[in-house]
């Protein structure tokens, strides 16, 4: 099957028996997000290496962990910062330079 160059991006991995399989390297879909949310509702947010086997997602455990941590985790606040918060961050950065863990603990 002919596909345009750059249209499909995949990474290679090896399964338990040394079988080579393809993993997706594209944007996450809403269906994949739902599968991941349902998995963690049942099993909890651990055993990242098992996610790929248990869900059938063609994503690595690390990719699933990053998606969960950065986008799907309950209670994650992705709202825009208020002007007061921006001023506080700027003041703390002037005080602590680029020590972001220290700055984040005070915001």
Description:
The chain has 107 residues and is mainly alpha-helical. The chain is 51% helix and 9% strand. The protein is built from 5 helices and 2 strands; from the N terminus they run ββααααα. It has helices at 30-43, 48-55, 61-72, 83-96, 100-106, and strands at 10-14, 20-24. It has a two-stranded antiparallel ribbon. α4 (83-96) packs across α5 (100-106). The longest helix is centred in the middle third of the chain and has 14 residues, at 30-43. The radius of gyration is 19 Å and the shape is elongated. The model is unreliable at 1-10 (pLDDT under 50).
Using the alpha-carbon principal axes, give the shape: elongated
Proportion in helices: 40-55%
- Total DSSP helices: 5
Strand content: 5-15%
- As a whole number of angstroms, the C-alpha radius of gyration is 19 Å
Q: Which segments are poorly predicted (pLDDT under 50) over 5 or more consecutive residues?
A: 1-10
What string gives the helices and strands in order? Answer: EEHHHHH
Give the CA-CA distance, first to last residue. 53 Å
Mean pLDDT value:
79
Adjacency order of strands in the biggest sheet = 1-2
Sketch the major β-sheet: 2 strands, antiparallel
Which structural category do the helix and sheet elements fall into? mainly alpha
Oligomer: single chain
Number of strands: 2
């Amino acid at each position: 099957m002919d596909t345009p160059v750059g249209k499909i991006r995949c990474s290679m991995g090896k399964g338990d028996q040394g079988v080579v399989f393809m993993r997706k390297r594209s944007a996450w879909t809403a269906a994949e997000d739902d599968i991941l949310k349902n998995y963690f509702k049942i099993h909890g947010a651990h055993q990242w290496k098992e996610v790929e086997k248990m869900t059938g997602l063609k994503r690595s455990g690390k990719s699933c962990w990053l998606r969960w941590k950065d986008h799907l985790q309950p209670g994650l606040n992705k709202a825009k910062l208020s002007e007061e918060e921006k001023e506080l961050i700027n003041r703390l950065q002037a005080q602590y330079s680029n020590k972001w863990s220290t700055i984040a603990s005070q915001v």
